[in-house]
Amino acid sequence: MRLTLAMLLALAALPVRAAVEIQQVTSPGGIDAWLVEESSIPFTALEIRFGPGAALDRTGKRGAVNLMAGLLEEGTGDLDAQGFAAARDALAASFDYDAYDDAVSVSARFLTENRDAAVDLLRRSLVEPAFAQDAVDRVRDQVLSVIARDSTDPGAIARRIWDARAFPDHPYGQPVEGTVESVTALTREDIVQAHRDTLVRDNLYVSAVGDITPEALGKLLDDLLGALPETSDATPPGDAGWNLAPGVSVVDYDTPQSVILFGHEGIARDDPDFMTAYILNEIFGGSGFNSRLMEEVRVKRGLTYGIGTYLAPMDYAAMIGGQAASANATAGALVDVVREEWGRVAEGVTEEELAEVKTYLTGAYPLRFDGNANIAQILVGMQMDGLPTDYVATRNDEVEAVTLDDIRRVARRIYRPEDLSFVIVGRPEGTN
Questions:
Q1: What is the mean predicted confidence (pLDDT) over 29-52?
Q2: What phi and psi, each to the nearest 5 degrees, are found at residue 236?
Q3: Pairing relation of β-strands 204-210 and 307-313?
Q4: pLDDT digit string, tens, across residues 304-322
Q5: Pick from 231, 252, 357, 390: most CB atoms within 10 A?
Q6: What does the pLDDT look like over 145-179, one tens digit per residue?
Q7: Three-class SS string for the chain?
Q8: How many Cα atoms are found within 13 Å in the side-chain-facing hemisphere of 68?
Q9: Cα(422)–Cα(341) distance, rounded to whole angstroms?
Q10: Band of residue 20 on the pLDDT scale cut at 50, 70, 90
């Protein structure tokens, strides 16, 4: 009896060790990929990234790459959207297409017995998308609905204003979806141009995990991606800089809770201090209920249900940021605590805090490798970050090697209370 895709996906979620064996594969046509071969289940997960992504939107065409990605599953050749979906479902395959500023993402899952047919269907969607006008109009309306919804969501409003002020005159300064004006004005030719700009082989990262040999993967890569152009004439946007002024900016909005974004310029992923900064962030605000911010803001003072921080090392900018929501009456008090703790973490952390977060990070890392799809996503992310194949084996050693002196030095470098910015959407009390 044939296993269904749903059953295989469930099986693929079984835990595996983090010490996966990564093979580097180059197809006869010169396309590179990373492979983890696992033949125990007749199923393969494939992850493809074209980078950069929506950051390549041309001037005045914001939202074109996002709309293009949404149209890749809307028909190819003689298959309209319904025909494409029916063909995919008949193969028990799964295809997902997404656009982000730094990548166009394609995720595929297929059974070994249907591999050739699934790859051919996926190829047609990537190389020969129809971009039929009725599909363009329909997906455009869906995007406009998302934009309309976000226009009344305090969190989305805060993010839009934050980005616009931090990155003016750069694609990062507008939502990936675009604006009502830019999306409404997009033509089919704009979508075709976005396809030409982004789906090219010199911006390509690929990983595969599952029941496939290096030889078979090499053939698959050429069959699937070999017909894509090598390059495009699109010009990357360049460094985004950082333009958000320190201090508090309030956007009046009638809501019982204020949404609060905070942060300042951050640290690049390839910076030698990034791992130390990552550990610091976990201690400060990244590790849920065990973080300093959660302890001070929620547990001790009850100012919010949740608060968290993150490092955002993007292709053209880097940020240390955080987000919380608080009742309007207590929003000012939350801002004061964040400021105080931002200054305190700049002085370093304790030996106990460092030991605890190392135990957490090294113990949690193998749990990420809990199935073919997750492993494939990790591998393609490693490629985009410029990490070597042995990073999976050495990452925990890198965590353990961070010393308290490293923490103190990097904390002074990257946490700068004088540069801290807040964008608040709501009607907060006590802010200044």
A1: 96
A2: -60, 150
A3: unpaired
A4: 999 999 999 999 999 999 9
A5: 357
A6: 999 999 999 999 999 999 999 999 999 999 999 99
A7: CCCCHHHHHHHHCCCCCCCCCCEEEECCCCCEEEEEECCCCCEEEEEEEECCCHHHCCCCCCCHHHHHHHHCCCEECCEEHHHHHHHHHHCCCEEEEEEECCEEEEEEEEEHHHHHHHHHHHHHHHHCECCCHHHHHHHHHHHHHHHHHHCCCHHHHHHHHHHHHHCCCCHHHCCCCCCHHHHHHCCHHHHHHHHHHHCCHHHEEEEEEECCCHHHHHHHHHHHHCCCCCCCCCCCCCCCCCCCCCEEEEEECCCCEEEEEEEEECCCCCCCCHHHHHHHHHHHHHCHHHCHHHHHHHHCCCCCCCEEEEEEECCCCEEEEEEEEEEHHHHHHHHHHHHHHHHHHCCCCCHHHHHHHHHHHHHHHHHHCCCHHHHHHHHHHHHHCCCCCCHHHHHHHHHHHCCHHHHHHHHHHHCCHHHCEEEEEECCCCCC
A8: 34
A9: 14
A10: confident
Smallest Cα–Cα separation from 143: which of 189, 95, 183? 183
Burial class (CB in 10 A: 0-12, 13-18, 19+), 390: exposed
CA 126 to chain centre: 21
Longest dimension (CA), the chain: 67
Cβ distance 13 to 184 under 8 Å? no
| Closest by CA position to 338, among listed 274, 386, 285, 276 | 285
Which strands, in side-by-side order, build the sheet including 204-210?
A: 23-26, 32-37, 204-210, 43-50, 103-111, 94-100
Inter-residue contact 46 to 216 (CB < 8 Å): no
